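Q: Please design a sequence for this.
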């Protein structure tokens, strides 16, 4: 069972994605390092890990949505 993310984790993750859309990736370790450098507030290790994990989740969902859109466009073109 997965844990529910708090509002603060979601808010910070979405804010960071808006501010630095090209810096984050689906790699958890990479996101942790970026959070260390770019976080607007001081984060504990646990908070940083939660935010990095949520960023990975958001980016994977965004990729999946883009793949579905491309498939729909290609099927409409045929």
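A: Design:
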């Amino acid at each position: 069972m997965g844990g529910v993310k708090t509002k603060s984790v979601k808010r910070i993750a979405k804010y960071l994605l808006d501010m630095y859309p090209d810096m984050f990736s689906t790699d958890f370790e990479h996101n942790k390092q970026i959070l260390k450098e770019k976080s607007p507030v001081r984060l504990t290790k646990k908070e940083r890990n939660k935010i990095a994990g949520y960023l990975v989740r958001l980016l994977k969902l965004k990729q999946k949505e883009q793949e579905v859109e491309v498939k729909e466009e290609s099927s409409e073109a045929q």
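Q: Thanks. Anything notable?
A: The chain has one domain: 7-77. The radius of gyration is 15 Å.
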